[in-house]
From TrEMBL:
Gene Ontology cellular component terms for the protein in this record: plasma membrane
InterPro entries xrefs: TM_pro_TauE-like (IPR002781)
UniProt-annotated location(s): Cell membrane; Membrane
Protein name: Probable membrane transporter protein
Entry's transmembrane regions: 6-36, 48-66, 78-96, 108-126, 146-167, 179-202, 214-234, 246-266
Broad class of where this protein is predominantly found: membrane
Lineage, highest ranks first: Bacteria, Pseudomonadati, Pseudomonadota, Betaproteobacteria, Burkholderiales
Record bears the keyword Signal: no
């Protein structure tokens, strides 16, 4: 891995880590398109390049989540009871998500990711929050909600924040607590999804050297080194400022990344 590539991966990791801490989104929506560009340029097998980008991005969230949740926990914002109720369903869903992704070809997976990022960017730019119309459901309902969050997150390599945060807000959880709790949920999402990507990618032919299933470990190591440094800064920033304007600016970036993934799907 040349030093220019290392520098690009460090910048990506820093940006993804800061976004994860600030917005509770896991950083995957930023990382996956850029990792896809890099892996494509390096000549990775085109039939698995998006699968590898998603798997590598998801693995980084294990470390980013631990780093950012410490900062949120210091502010007393993480609702650990909610984490405990959602985590079982999330673990199951996050294992299933990569399995579903493996059944899809690169074009279909690119289209799915692009659609998810477009939806997420629209959420950001409109800044619509669901009206708090109910309380959190019981254990079966929380398991089902966690399963849906996990499946989507495992499929697109993100931390699930764009589902879990609106869901918690709708259930009368304050927004800062929802973001902090979403950051904590990133760890079980990433752990289960990473193990799934290793398992289902293990026998995939033609993967590049140093791959662990669908995960490309050199890129993972470099991105993590930067993301764990920046995630706490993002989390601290989230408690000091109104992030609405920043979210809208970030949404413009997401639209551009979604456009690239749409292009990649048809290229």
């Amino acid at each position: 891995m040349d030093w220019g590539l290392v520098g690009i991966l460090l910048l990506m990791g820093a940006g993804g880590g800061f976004a994860a801490g600030l917005l509770g989104i896991g950083g995957g929506m930023v990382l996956v398109p850029f990792i896809t560009m890099i892996f494509t340029a390096k000549g990775f097998p085109p039939q698995v390049v998006v699968h590898m980008a998603i798997a590598t991005s998801l693995a980084t969230i294990m470390f980013t989540s631990l780093s950012s949740v410490r900062a949120h926990h210091k502010h007393g914002a993480v609702q650990w009871r909610i984490v405990a109720l959602l985590a079982p369903g999330i673990v199951v869903g996050s294992w299933i998500g990569p399995w579903i992704g493996k059944q899809m070809n690169t074009s279909a997976l690119s289209l799915l990711f692009a659609a998810f990022v477009t939806f997420s960017a629209l959420q950001m730019i409109l800044n619509k929050k669901p009206a708090p119309g109910r309380e959190l459901p019981g254990t079966p309902g929380m398991f089902a909600a966690g399963g849906v969050i996990g499946v989507v997150a495992g499929l697109v390599g993100a931390g699930g924040g764009f589902i879990s945060v609106p869901f918690m807000t709708w259930c009368n959880v304050r927004i800062h607590q929802a973001v902090a709790t979403s950051a904590a949920l990133g760890f079980p999402i990433a752990l289960s999804g990473t193990l799934s990507n290793i398992y289902f990618g293990w026998s995939e032919p033609g993967l590049p050297q140093y791959s662990l299933g669908f995960i490309y470990t050199p890129a993972l190591a470099v991105i993590v080194a930067a993301s764990v440094t920046m995630a706490p800064l993002g989390a601290r920033t989230a408690h000091k400022m109104d992030v609405v304007s920043l979210k809208r600016a970030f949404a413009v970036v997401l639209f551009g990344l979604a456009a690239y993934m749409f292009y990649h799907a048809f290229a």
